[in-house]
Design brief:
Low-confidence stretches: none
Helix content: 40-55%
Order of helices and strands: HHEHEHEEHEHHEEHHE
Shape: globular
Number of strands: 8
Bound molecules: S-adenosylmethionine
CATH superfamily: Vaccinia Virus protein VP39
Distance between the termini: 38 Å
CATH class: Alpha Beta
Length: 269
C-alpha cells in the first residue's frame, strides 16, 4: 500500500486536470504527433507512479489513437483501479514496479516518461539516479504537478505563513525515497536534466480552488493539519483554530485557495 487511496486521487483529479499547464501539454502532444508520421511505430509512453491513471486520462485524448502506454506503480490496489477504469482492449499495460529499483526501470523503446504529483515525494539522490538512467535512452520527461511550496488564501488567517512553513518542512520528510525534495523538486530535476543537455521548460500549474471544490479543500486541509501536528512547532490550539477557520472558508462563495505546483517538460537537446 502506498498511502495514496483511490478516493483521494479521484477527488484531486479534476483540479489536477484544470491546473496542468496547457502550453506544455500541447507541446508534448505536438512533439509526439510530429514524431509519428504515417508508417512509423506508434509513440510509446511510460507513466511512473501512475496511481489510477490520471495522466493517461488527461494526455491520451491529445495523442495518436495507437499510442502505447505502460503504467507503473508499486501499489497493486491503485493498479487494479487504473485497470478497471481504463478498461480492456486499450493499448495500455499495467505493471507493478517499485521505483526504488530505478536501475531496472523498463525504458527500452520509451519516447517519453510521464509522471504527475510524484517527484516532490522523491529525494535529490533518486532524481539524479532517475535522470542518469533516462538520459542515455534519449527519452523525454513530462513531470507535472509538483508542489512548489506556495499556499495562499484570498481571506487570510494570521497562522497561514506558519502553517505553510511547517507543511513545507513535512514535505521534505522521507516519503519512501529518502529525504524528499518537496518544493525543490522541479528546480532540482530541471538542473539535473539540463546537465544532460535536455531542453527544459517549466510552467506554473496551481490549483485555484473555490467553494465548488469544498470536498477537495476539506481533505487537503485535514492533511495539512495532520502534517503540521507531526512537525510539532505550533501548539494544538493554534492548529485547531487555523483548521476550523479554513474549513469554514472552504464553503464560502468566492473565497479562494491557491496551492502552487509546477509542471516540467524536458525534451532531448
Ligand atoms: C500523489 S500519487 C500520484 C498518482 C498519479 N500520478 C496522479 O497524478 O493521480 C503518487 C503515486 O506514486 C506512487 N508511488 C509512491 N512511491 C512509489 C514507489 N516507490 N514505486 C512506485 N510507485 C510509487 C504511489 O503509489 C502513488 O500512486
Amino acid at each position: 500500500m502506498s498511502g495514496f487511496d483511490k478516493d483521494w486521487l479521484a477527488l484531486r483529479e479534476p483540479a489536477d486536470k484544470a491546473a496542468r499547464d496547457a502550453g506544455l501539454l500541447n507541446m508534448l502532444a505536438q512533439t509526439l504527433r510530429d514524431g509519428n508520421p504515417e508508417g512509423k511505430r506508434p509513440p510509446n509512453l511510460l507513466d511512473i507512479g501512475c496511481g489510477t491513471g490520471s495522466t493517461y486520462r488527461t494526455l491520451s485524448p491529445l495523442l495518436p489513437k495507437n499510442t502505447h502506454w505502460r503504467l507503473l506503480d508499486y501499489d497493486p490496489a491503485l493498479l487494479a483501479e487504473a485497470s478497471a477504469r481504463i478498461g480492456e482492449g486499450s493499448p495500455v499495460e499495467f505493471r507493478q514496479f517499485d521505483l526504488n529499483n530505478i536501475d531496472a526501470l523498463p525504458l527500452a523503446g520509451t519516447d517519453v516518461v510521464t509522471a504527475s504529483a510524484l517527484f516532490d515525494l522523491c529525494s535529490a539522490n533518486f532524481c539524479d539516479r532517475f535522470v542518469g538512467v533516462l538520459a542515455p535512452t534519449g527519452a523525454g520527461l513530462y513531470a507535472a504537478l509538483n508542489y512548489d511550496g506556495q499556499m495562499k488564501w484570498s481571506v487570510v488567517h494570521p497562522l497561514d505563513a506558519a502553517v505553510t512553513a511547517d507543511f513545507n518542512c513535512h514535505q521534505r520528510l522521507d516519503k519512501g525515497f529518502g529525504a524528499a525534495l518537496g518544493p525543490d523538486a522541479t528546480h532540482h530535476l530541471a538542473g539535473a536534466l539540463s546537465a544532460f543537455h535536455y531542453r527544459v521548460l517549466t510552467a506554473e500549474s496551481p490549483w485555484v480552488l473555490d467553494e465548488r471544490s469544498a470536498p477537495l479543500q476539506r481533505e487537503l486541509l485535514e492533511g495539512i493539519a495532520n502534517a503540521v501536528r507531526e512537525i510539532g512547532e505550533l501548539v494544538p490550539e493554534e492548529i485547531e483554530a487555523w483548521l476550523t477557520f479554513r474549513l469554514e472558508q472552504a464553503d464560502v462563495p468566492g473565497s479562494l485557495c491557491r496551492i502552487g505546483h509546477q509542471d516540467l517538460l524536458a525534451l532531448p537537446g
